[in-house]
Amino acid sequence: MRYWLRTLCIGLVVMSYHCAEVNIEESNNQNTNPSDTDASAPECPTCDEPCTTDQECWPSSVCLDGICGRECVTDEECVAQGAFCHDHRCKAANPQDTTGSVDTSTPTDTGSSPQDTGQPDTSVPDTTSSDPGTPKKGFGDPCQEGSECESSLCLDVGIAGTGFCTQACTRSKECGAGFLCAPVSATEKVCAPSDVGNPVDCAASTCFGLLSLQNGLGQCVCSGECLDASDCPASMVCSYAQTQAGNVKACIPFGAPCSGPNDCYQQACAGEPGSTGFCTATCETTLDCPGGAACAGVDGTSQTYCQ
C-alpha cells in the first residue's frame, strides 16, 4: 500500500484547521520539496548564529548543536545516507541496511547437456525454486510500492516521486527521533517525517501531523498530537488546546523568549513584569514537560505550568 499525504480537515482554535485527502493509487506527484526546486543554495542570513530551537534560525536554516546551519539543501547531498533533504535536514535514513542482495549472475556452462534421443520431451518442468526472492525493505528504506516493504506500507512525501518504507503507529514515540505518527485516513496512522515546530503558512498549512498552532502575532508552526512530552521534539510541551471536535493534546513550543502572551503559542509568557520571559504552556504532570522542566503552580492562578 502506498500513501500520499495532503492537507486533511483538522486543526485547533489556537491551531488552524486544514484539509487533505489520502490517495492509495499510483500518482504522478510533482516535487513539492522547497530544497529540490533550486539546485543552487539560497542565501543563509541566520547561518552560524547561536540558537536553541529551529524557530530562531528559520526559514533559511535550522538549529544544529546550538548553531544555525544546514545539513543539506538538495536531495543529492543526502543520497550517501540513503535519505532525502527535508527542511535542511537529511531525513528517513535507515540505520540498518535490511535490503540484502540477490545473485543475478549467469550460471557457469559446464559443457554437459541431455543426450538427444530423437524422441519428444514429455518430462514436466520443475517449477519449484529455492530462491526466496528479493528481501523486503525495512523502515526508512526508499520505496515506490508497498510491496517492496516488510510492512507493506510505502509513504510518498512528495520528494522526487519516491517514498520510504514506513510502519503503522498509535503515537509518535513509537516512530523514533525525527518522525511523528501522522494520520493518513480516519482510522489509520503511519510514521512520517516530523515537521513539528517548523514555521508554516497559516493560510495553506501542509503539516504532516495535520495540526498547526498560531500565536497572537499571526505566526504559525506545525504541531502533532501527543500523550505526553515523549511524543514531542525537545523543548516542546504536550498540552491541551481546544478544537472544533473538543480538546486535543498537542506539542507546543516551550522556552522561547517573550515580552508578552502574544509571542507564545498558548499565550502564556512566564517571567517578572518588565523583564524578558519565556513561553510556556499548561501541564497536568511533569511528564507533559520537556526534560529539565517541572509542572508547578503559579501564584494567582489555579493552573499548573511547565517551568
Describe this structure in words.
The structure is a single chain. This protein has 307 residues and is an all-beta fold. 0% of the residues lie in helices and 25% in strands. A four-stranded mixed sheet has the order 1-8-9-7, with no helix packed on it. The chain has a four-stranded antiparallel sheet with strand order 2-13-14-12, with no helix packed on it. The protein has a three-stranded antiparallel sheet with strand order 17-19-18, with no helix packed on it. Strand 3 and strand 4 form a beta hairpin. It is globular and about 65 Å long. The two termini are 44 Å apart.
Structure summary:
The chain has 307 residues and is mainly β. It has strands spanning 2-4, 15-16, 62-64, 67-69, 84-86, 89-91, 142-143, 154-159, 162-165, 179-183, 189-193, 199-200, 211-214, 220-223, 236-243, 246-253, 257-258, 269-270, 277-279, 295-297, 304-306.
